[in-house]
Amino acid sequence: MKRVLPPLNALRAFEAAGRLGSFKEAAAELHVTHGAVSQQVRLLEEWLGASLFERHNRRVVLTPAAKAYLAEIGPLFEHISHATARYGLPEPVSRTLSVNAPATFTLRWLVPRLAKFRVAHPDVDVKVETSNEPVESLPVTYEVIIRGGPDTFYGYSMRPFLSEERIPVCSPALLQRLPLRTPDDIRQHTLLNTSSLPRLWPDWLARANIAALTPAAALTFDHFYLTLQAAIDGIGIAMGPTALIADDLAAGRLVAPFAGPRLASRSYCTYVPDEKSGNELVVLFRSWLECEGAFTHGDSPLEAG
């Protein structure tokens, strides 16, 4: 008979949080972040289809069902701990998750956050390859594919995790040299373009009611990450995707000189082959992406304790 087991990392986080009555203390014991414990507990709740904690300001309380569940699984962790100490078993073998994502997204959003995933899940190795090919055209099968959407592909499940808009951005140093008080001041500046996205500036200028504006100069790059780097370096103004420039805006490397208009853009979504959608690592990584996507836009997931 096949065993029915929940994600074990999530179960470990639940056991520690339930035993200690605090996500914060559980995080300290497990040597992970408070958010990582919250994320793992939410993953287990999704897997079980039931709430495990009642959240009250800075503390958490087990639900009656969760209390009974903890009473049964808690001693098992003690037995595992004693057996491991007794027999000196080696560290578990690392597990690998294959991910394919666009290069600019990987460089500017995913890579800066992967360290947090690694801290929370040290036994999971994420193998990332970059590509802009359509989902159905990829030459090999990946467990998680990140692309714009939402789109529908036969044989794949889709879930959005990160929304964005596009706005003009530039370096603070550029604004000091050439202020941008109104959109019409753009005519004094260099516009930075990406060859694969030729309509960004024309569409924004039309929305700003200055479609006939002629800038002082224009530069075009073949990769979007080069366009954004040119903006950071003070070369000109770029149309920045809010999700991918959130860290730069927060750090002051880029500024948004205008309140609007803002161009709508496609969301980032995960596309997973149907046969892999129940894989523990896929479920874990998807949940983590959605949690990080919420943080990018300032929407903190449920945390307590």
TrEMBL record:
Q: Which PROSITE patterns match?
A: HTH_LYSR
Protein keywords: DNA-binding, Transcription, Transcription regulation
Entries under Gene3D superfamilies matching the protein = Periplasmic binding protein-like II, Winged helix-like DNA-binding domain superfamily/Winged helix DNA-binding domain
UniProt domain HTH lysR-type: residue ranges: 6-63
The Gene Ontology terms for molecular function here are: DNA-binding transcription factor activity; sequence-specific DNA binding
InterPro entries xref list: LysR-type_TF_proteobact-type, LysR_HTH_N, LysR_subst-bd, WH-like_DNA-bd_sf, WH_DNA-bd_sf
SUPFAM superfamilies according to UniProt: Periplasmic binding protein-like II, Winged helix' DNA-binding domain
- Ranges in a coiled coil: none
Q: Which GO BP terms, alphabetically?
A: DNA-templated transcription
Q: Can the keyword Transcription regulation be found in this entry's annotation?
A: yes
Transport keyword on record = no
Q: Which domain of life is it from?
A: Bacteria
Please state which protein family the record places this protein in: Belongs to the LysR transcriptional regulatory family.
Q: Which PANTHER family match?
A: HTH-TYPE TRANSCRIPTIONAL REGULATOR, HTH-TYPE TRANSCRIPTIONAL REGULATOR TRPI
Give the protein's recorded name. Answer: Transcriptional regulator GcvA
* Source organism: Paraburkholderia polaris
State the gene name recorded for this protein. Answer: gcvA
